[in-house]
Amino acid sequence: MIVITGEKICTLEEFLPGENAYEYNNEVISSVIGIVQKDLKSRRVNVKPLNEAPVIKEGDKVIGRVIDIKYPAIALIKILKILGKKRFIASIPYGVLYVGNIKNDIIIDIRKEIAYGDIILAKVIYAGKVPVQLVTNEDDLGVIYAYCFNCNLPLKYYEENKLICENCGRIELRKVSKLYGRGDILWK
Ligand SMILES: [Zn+2]
After folding, report:
1. 3-state secondary structure (DSSP) of residue 133
2. CB-proximal residues (5 Å) to ion ligand 1
């Protein structure tokens, strides 16, 4: 059962308030949005918050959206999901991708590797504080979804590090992941 903040969970006779719950007028009320967990042994009811972020660890792969390019050296990424974890992330939202961590070659212009609005798959190399530090310098990492600058339609894979718009023919350069367009497996 999911309850919202301030919602009655049960009466005091049934259960006592545990974590994230309190007593009011002989009733047990939730203090967060979350999932009710009844502990029959202690006769307490706890609420596990829904917005509790999974802890990001070094080595985790994450899906994120490029929300800013600080030319010439930094892309700012809003992290949307940790690969392999079902829940979307509410409270560890930002990562940075330094130009030197995009791929193993020397990069002349960050704008030929990644663009505003791209969805990327990246690996966390430092999670000690927010923003976490990301890299995309492996074959499966990089841009997994991007849109045409002209048409705003999804680009298709063209060839290594190139994407094409089937509508207008525009070719755009990216550090393309080999999983480009495979959102079906990534978002699971
Ligand atoms: Zn186009």
Report:
1. strand
2. 148, 150-151, 165, 167-168, 170
